[in-house]
Amino acid sequence: MLEIGSVVAGSYKILSVIGRGGMSVVYLAINERANRPWAIKEVRKGQGADLAADRKEIEMLRRLKHPNLPAIADVIEHEDSLLIVMDYIEGRSLEDILREQGAQPQEQVARWARQLCDVLFYLHTREPAVIYRDMKPANVMLKPDGEEIALIDFGAAKEYKPEKIKDTVSLGTRGYAAPEQYEEEGKSDARTDIYCFGVMLFQLLTGAAPHGLRPITEINPVLSQGLESIILKCTQVKKEDRYQSCGELLYDLEHYDRIDRKSRRRRRTKLTLFFATAGLGVLCGMAALGFWLGESHVRANTYDACILAAVSCSDTSEALDYYEKAISIAPARQEAYLMLLDRIFLTDDNLTAKEDKELRRILNDAGTGSMSHEQSLAENKEGYEMLAYRLGLAYFYSYEKNGNKGMALKWLRIAAQAQTLEPHMILRAGKLGQIAEYYGRIGMANKAGDAAISYRDYWEDLIVMAEGDIAGVDNITTALMVYKELVYQIYNRASLFRSAGVERQELLDELEAVGQLLETKLLIPEDGNQERNRLLMEELLSDLERAKRQVDAAFLVWEEA
Are 70 and 126 in contact (CB under 8 A)? Predict the structure, then answer.
């Protein structure tokens, strides 16, 4: 062991022991000349396996540059030890805070979670990706400001190697580790870290032990159902059922309040008797008046009555029933479809998988006729093309919050070939449809072995998508969604764009252009969408800064390599 008060390498004075592991000791030291504290990890050279692991940790950490990770300043061969000089992270571990204070306020946990998720996203997008594998409160330090955190101890981390079918060594902490970390043929990847992350969130929010996971509202009913939903998705047993990337997870963490309301009740109080009785009464009245009103007029009045009832209804599930009843009465009319989309499925700018299933059920329902509702609406070219345009945008931008380009493709193709839409709508559907068409094929090779579509091609089309006065020819909501998509893709794919030859300045120029538009040209009108657009703009401004940092990080690592 190093002696307290001794000076190492002529620069670092050992002040105290601040941590111990099975094979190592961590000291607090100070460089008296610079008056700066450092952490020095001492690993005995005689401990072969541990020394090899620490050398691996050193090489890995040396390549990482992130504000929430400690940086290595020096590696010193000292007698029979290896000394690793790294940033001293002042503060306390979240494990200590949990032990003393118990469950933490959910707003605070959400802020920590976003920082940690950003760190994991950075690690997973390295080349090769770094899988942390030991996310737990003991490995997260909270700095004295109570806001900023740092992820420490990379002893269990590994670089992801696609050619390996399983992990060589199963590491991780029982209770936090994902199931695949202890399966004989298990292989950890980014989704493994997502599982451990979800377990840690559960413990931070409830104060409960990480064993026996259950919905957090069962422990504390006042906790956020949005965070509960996120944790449940993180901690699914099957990897394919979890978030597939920290980019998806981070987006939900930044918008958990939007999924925070209680699960919708899908009460199916059928209105058949009511409408049958009402219809019979109307028909009898018509007969008494000499049948002066035709059947089509009766059906139109009943359709309009359903729409009016849906608009005035405060219960979402009942309103949905009214809209569905209207559609079954007149499936070729577009109003109920469009209002269903706006007032039920997109009130929070998020078309969920459950809502998509409900929507497809309604479109495929044939009612009492031989044609599906969608087929009936298709005979009304104007109504069908407008619904196709609106559904294309909804799936492209809002499906499960991040958008699903593949699901948007059908509707965008219809809108791009439309004859009744405004020219700017047809143009936009065509641009988005082109992106959606090859979205799932970027980076893939054709039969000749060449890249079918490159990230450079993808970048060029993203620029085209965002060109022009979108707010002027379409509307400000569409403009904000377009810019949000551009910024989101830059944030998530900065390193891939870089590898495809897109210059750092090109990425930053586009982000700067969006920022200038938001600050100088996009004025939010005072209308029914004012609050929605204001929130979109606030989110976009925040996303811009994160995207700029991600671009800098992607090119910094590349330049240093």
Answer: no
